[in-house]
Every structure is written in structure tokens, then in C-alpha cells.
Write a structure and sequence with these properties.
Blueprint lengths: L7 H15 L5 H16 L8 H33 L1
């Protein structure tokens, strides 16, 4: 499934899994990251996929979530490349 086709709930779960990878357990860092993710999703809770102006906003928010996941993967890939060479 391409990132553009991912549902909001799938992206939300992916972001929470990423937090578990970055900061496992109940560390202050993991709590702060989870709180930030939840607050961002709570801001868009009132948007309706049936409303065309909201669809545009939802797609923009989903693109931001995909970008965050992609940026982290690129960052981790860069760290691994430096360690190898």
C-alpha cells in the first residue's frame, strides 16, 4: 500500500510504533512524543472525509505524518551508513 493510500489510523499506529522504537517504555521522551502525536490527531478529530475542504486538510495532515516517518527512516539510514564506512 502506498503512503498516499494509508488511512489515518494506520499512520497513527505507525507513528506510535516509531515512538516505541525510538524511546521504549515510559521514559519522559516517549511520553512527550506520544502526547505530541495524540494532540496533533486530536486537532483534526472534527474533520470529515465526506466534506471536500476537509479532505484537502486530511490529505495534508497525512502527508505530514508520512513525511515524519520518512525523515526518521532517512536519518536512521544515514547513521547506519556512517557506522559502516
Amino acid at each position: 500500500m502506498s503512503p498516499a493510500q494509508r488511512t489515518s489510523i494506520e499512520l497513527y499506529r505507525d507513528l506510535l510504533r516509531l515512538v516505541n522504537h525510538i524511546a521504549p517504555g515510559a521514559s519522559p521522551k516517549s511520553i512527550a512524543l506520544r502526547t505530541m502525536i495524540r494532540s496533533e490527531y486530536d486537532k483534526s478529530r472534527g474533520l470529515s472525509p465526506e466534506n471536500p475542504p476537509d479532505q484537502i486538510k486530511i490529505e495534508g495532515l497525512k502527508a505530514n505524518a508520512v513525511r515524519a516517518l520518512s525523515n526518521y527512516m532517512l536519518y536512521e539510514g544515514g547513521i547506519q551508513d556512517r557506522n559502516k564506512g
